Amino acid sequence: MDKRKLYVLWTTGDPVTSQFMIMMYATYSKTKRWWDEVCIIIWGASAKLVSEDENIKQCVKNAMQAGVEFSACIACATQLGVVDKLKEIGIEVKPWGEPLSDIIKEDEGLITI
After folding, report:
1. Phi, psi of 58 (to 5 degrees)
2. I need a surface site. Which of 47, 52, 82, 98 has the fewest CB within 10 A?
3. What is the pLDDT, as a whole number, of residue 1?
4. Res 72: pLDDT
5. pLDDT for the residue numbered 75
6. Of 16, 12, 7, which Cα lies nearest the Cα of 70?
7. Is the C-alpha dihedral spanning 54, 46, 76, 95 positive or negative?
8. pLDDT averaged over every residue in the chain
9. Separation CA 99–CA 104 (nearest Å)
10. Whole-structure pTM value
11. DSSP code at position 66
């Protein structure tokens, strides 16, 4: 059986949705083995939220401990001035435009919130 990877494109700056949908589903997806791999792509408002909200930052750390991968769009993080803050948490920061396009073209598992 092929390994299945889920990507979650996290664009919302809403802390309730971030905690109770994105972090909850991603963490359970790993711990309950609904997906082999889970990668959350931080894009836009979510980059600012993660860098400023201590509760969300802790949710990210908990998800990381469960095996969820995190990566942030460098263009957004740079424009919002949060690159260093994201890296301090252990989040990879890289260009995501082309990889995201490939994920969509290859019809991989993708949730956008």
Report:
1. -70, -40
2. 98
3. 45
4. 98
5. 98
6. 7
7. positive
8. 96
9. 9
10. 0.95
11. T
Amino acid in position 24: M
The pLDDT tens digits of the residues spanning 32-66 come to 999 999 999 999 999 999 999 999 999 999 999 99
Counting every residue written for the chain, the total comes to 113
Q: Return the closest-CA partner of residue 2 out of 29, 42, 37.
A: 37
Task: Of 44, 41, 50, give the one whose Cα is nearest residue 75.
Answer: 44
* Residue-wise burial string across 39-69, b where 16 or more C-beta atoms lie within 10 A, e elsewhere: bbbbbbbbbbbbbebeebbebbeebbeeebb
pLDDT of amino acid 95: 98
Task: Name the CA dihedral angle for 22, 85, 65, 1, rounded to a multiple of 10 degrees.
Answer: 60
Burial of 33 (0-12, 13-18, 19+ CB in 10 A): exposed
Residue showing tokens 């919130």: 113
Distances (CA, A) of 104 to 4, 96, 111: 15, 12, 10
